[in-house]
Amino acid sequence: MNYINIFSFLISLALSYIGIPMILNMLLKNNTVSPNYKGENIPLSMGLSFVFIQIISLSIILLITGENIDYTVYYLFSFSLMGFVGLLDDLIGDKDVKGFKGHIKSFFRGELTTGGIKAGVGFFVALIISIILSVNIIEVLINTLLIALFTNLINLLDLRPGRSIKVFIMISLVMLITRGVKDYNFFFYSFYGILVIYFPLDLKAKAMMGDVGSNVLGITLGIYCAYTHNLASKIIYLILLIIIHILAERLSFSKIIDNNKILKFIDNLGR
């Protein structure tokens, strides 16, 4: 771990220690709450803190090091845009329309949903990043699907306290091992600094990160993978993502987890 990773972690940790309690109080004061899976009203859209802190932290890193500026700016642009559409979905989203198919059907009926906006913007962002990054049409296709599906993955799993963050941490650690390029590791280390402060709130069901949080966690995984992995590794990740999304349309992941002792133990850990 080089000094950039350590520094990005410490900056985010310090900013989170100050900023996350302030954002939590702001949401409570303005009654920005929503019922969790137990029906308890808790602060919604705490993922807003992820957006502010990650942007500030990585901007400081860029100012100090001057390294990888272009691709980090592309990431932060995509990150911010997905955070915005996630916040829109949190605040005015139609909860009666469920799943990717539901939003597509609504679109073709002439009804625009915030979920449809999120899907469209997610695909657009993934496509733009992929065109910039890729050298041929095959790579464009693989990178686009990889980023788009990773962006949606965390949202699919954000149904119980701490679950999606555990998945983010596990996948990011695997990616740090399987990556071929190490220039962008600070994307993750900066997020780890944020999660040190935020994760206990999510685990204890004292706050929800909302779609704004799951979107930015997911797109961070997708863009990091696209930036740092070779084609063979990307194809493996993509196949797994496609399988997971197909299963998500047919099965309940919560039921699968509850019926498996090991998965249930991991899911309940820390609550």
Structural description of this entry:
The protein is globular, with a radius of gyration of 18 Å. A hairpin with a 5-residue loop joins strand 1 (33-35) and strand 2. It has a two-stranded antiparallel ribbon. The two termini are 30 Å apart. It has one domain. The chain has helices spanning 3-29, 48-65, 69-92, 99-108, 114-133, 137-157, 163-178, 186-203, 210-228, 231-248, 253-258, 261-268, and strands at 33-35, 41-43. The protein is built from twelve helices and two strands; from the N terminus they run αββααααααααααα. The mean pLDDT is 88. With 271 residues, the chain is mostly helical. InterPro entries: Glycosyl_transferase_4. One of its GO terms (molecular function) is phosphotransferase activity, for other substituted phosphate groups. Mg(2+) binds at residues 155, 211. Pfam families: Glycos_transf_4. It comes from [Clostridium] ultunense Esp.
